[in-house]
Amino acid sequence: MIKISPSLLAADATKMGEEVKKIEPYADMLHVDVMDGHFVPNISFGIPFVADMSKATDITLDVHLMIEHPLSYIEKFAKAGSDIITVHIEAPDNAAECIRLIKSLGKKAGIALNPNTDPKDIAHLVDSVDMVLQMTVFPGFGGQSMVRQALDNIKVIRDMIGEKDLQVDGGIYVENCHELVALGANVIVSGTGIFGQKDSVAAIKALKQRCMAEA
Ligand code: DX5
Ligand code: ZN
After folding, report:
1. Ligand 1 centroid, distance to 98 Cα (angstroms)
2. Domains along the chain?
3. What is the DSSP string of 162-204?
4. CA distance 121 to 89
5. Is 130 marked active-site?
6. Measured between alpha carbons, how far is 127 from 133 in angstroms, rounded to an integer?
7. Which of 177, 183, 179 is nearest to 155 (CA)?
8. What percent of the chain is predicted at pLDDT more than 70?
9. Average pLDDT for residues 126-152, to the nearest whole number?
């Protein structure tokens, strides 16, 4: 099943609530990028933002932790109302421990990998996660172009995880989303491709339609 997860990083902060209401009927999840200025060279949303968003919408909150020490923050993000919490295999904290903690808090767990990380590095975790996030850009910023190297990983990961959710994130637009779906991705994150367009509703509808046609 194709699911679209619009990334709020690209939304105008002064119109965030309005934007979320507009895309609500078409979004399957809402992607919240959390950056700490250490794991990635940028700073974005934090715990109060997730708490506000969880009050503002019933859409599944898909929280992508691009932070060096997720173990110290998972509980806070869970309590703030995250539904899915994804951590990076490249972060120094033990990923298996992070996943156990996320699950113990009754949340869904995801494991993310960068475009140049070998999918074998997450092989020991695939049974314990609900979702794998293959980054299609190097994390840290919205609006980047897709890194083609990541595409090779998608097929490998789909073979590893069976029917589980395979999310892709970074540089995804209506023009290229079908390639990722054809390789096995089913959860599409798009920031600039939705909130960076003139009409975010038309953009999410077009994205979903294009992906579903390829599925
Ligand atoms: C990048 C973030 C992405 C980002 C995607 O580090 O993880 O979720 O918001 O943005 P676009 O779709 O603009 O590449
Ligand atoms: Zn993200």
Report:
1. 22
2. 3-214 (3.20.20.70)
3. TTSEEEEESS--TTTHHHHHHHT--EEEESTTTTTSS-HHHHH
4. 8
5. no
6. 14
7. 183
8. 100
9. 97
Q: Which two tokens stand for residue 129?
A: 């996660």
Ligand 2 centroid from CA 213, angstroms: 24
> Coil, strand, or helix at residue 173?
coil
Q: Which two tokens stand for residue 186?
A: 């089913």
Tokens of 150: 């990541």
Distance (Å) of CA 129 to CA 63, 86, 95, 164, 199: 14, 9, 10, 9, 34
pTM here? 0.98
Distance between CA atoms of 64 and 43, rounded to whole angstroms? 13
Q: Which of 12, 33, 62, 152 is catalytic?
A: 33
How far, rounded to the nearest angstrom, does the alpha carbon of residue 161 sit from its chain's CA centroid? 17
- Which of 61, 62, 133, 192 is the pocket-test mutation for ligand 1 (most atoms within 8 Å of CB)? 192
Q: For residue 7, which atom of ligand 1 is closest to its CA?
A: 9
CB 45 within 8 A of CB 75: no
Please, what is the average pLDDT of the chain?
98
Q: Which of 129, 124, 96 is nearest to 110 (CA)?
A: 129
In 10 A of CB 103, how many CB atoms?
15
pLDDT (tens digit per residue) in 155-212: 999 999 999 999 999 999 999 999 999 999 999 999 999 999 999 999 999 999 999 9
> What pLDDT, on the 0 to 100 scale, is given for residue 205?
98
Q: What's the token pair of residue 149?
A: 């190297």
199 in catalytic set: no
Neighbours of 198 (CB within 10 A): 6
